[in-house]
Amino acid sequence: MGDGYLTSALPDNFALMVRALSVIKKAVNSQRPVNLDLRTIKLPVTAYTSILHRISGVILFVGIAVLLYGLDKSLMSEEGFAEVKECLTSPLAKFVIWGLLSALLYHLVAGVRHLIMDMGIGETLEGGKLGSKIVLVVSAVVILLVGVWIW
Amino acid sequence: MVTNVTNFSRSGLYDWMAQRVSAVVLAAYVLFLLGYIVANPGMGYAEWHALFSNNAMRIFSLLTLVALSAHAWVGMWTISTDYLTPMALGKWATGVRFLFQAACGIAMFTFFVWGVQIFWGN
C-alpha cells in the first residue's frame, strides 16, 4: 500500500468517521447500560466461589431458626437435651446438620479469604483465581471431615 | 446523588466495616463452640447447661447475636439489591425488594429476641 491509500480513502470514509464519532460521543454521554445480566455471562472460578458464599449465607440465615430451636430445646431441660440427642441420631437430622455445617464452614473459609484480600494479599487476577481454588479445596476438606465426624 | 436508605448504616464504608468486624466475632464463636463440642464427646446435659449459663459465655453469646444481626442484615441487603432488581423483576422490583428486606428484618429481630431468651433465660 502506497501513500495514496490513506489520502484516497479519506474522503470516502470521512462522513462515516464523523458519524461513528458522534455515535461514540452519544454513547459516552448517555448513561449507557452495562451488561450485568449474570445469566448471559460465562463465569470464572472467582464468580463461583462468590455466588457460593452468597448461597451459603442465605442457607445459614434460614438455618439460624433450626439451630436456635435445637439449642433452645437442649438447654431447656434434661428431657429436651435427650430429645435433641435422640433426634440427631436419625439420618435425616444428620444430613440437615451436615448441610448447615457445610454452609457454615464454606462461608467461614470464603470469609477468611475476604479478610486476607482486604489486607492486600491475592488481589491480582491470578491471585484471585488461586485464592478461589484454595477456598474450594480447603472447604471441601473440612466439609468432608465434618461429615466423617457426624457419621 | 445516591439516595439509598435501606442499607445498614447509610454508608457503604461503615457497612463494609460492620460486615468484617461482625465476621470476626462470628468466626470466633463458631470455632470455639465447634471446638468445645468436638473436644468433649458424649457431653451430658449438666455440662452443656453449665457452659451456656457461664456469665462469660452469656456475654459472648449476646455479642454474637448482635454481630449476627448486623452481619445478616448487610448480607441479605446486598443480595436483595443485587438480584431483586427491575432487570430481573420488572416494575414491581422496588416493592418486592422492600417486602423481602422487611421480612429479613423481622426474621432477624425475632432470632435476636429468641436468642436472648435462650441464652439469658435458660
UniProtKB/TrEMBL annotation, chain B:
Source species, domain of life: Bacteria
Cofactor: heme
Cellular compartment(s): Cell inner membrane
Entry membrane topology: Multi-pass membrane protein
CDD domains according to UniProt: SQR_TypeC_SdhD (cd03494)
Associated pathway: Carbohydrate metabolism; tricarboxylic acid cycle
Membrane-traversing stretches: 21-39, 59-77, 98-120
Entry keyword annotation includes Metal-binding: yes
Keywords noted in UniProt: Cell inner membrane, Cell membrane, Electron transport, Heme, Iron, Membrane, Metal-binding, Transmembrane, Transmembrane helix, Transport, Tricarboxylic acid cycle
Main localization (coarse): membrane
Role this protein plays: Membrane-anchoring subunit of succinate dehydrogenase (SDH).
The protein's name: Succinate dehydrogenase hydrophobic membrane anchor subunit
Originating organism: Pseudomonas aestuarii
Gene: sdhD
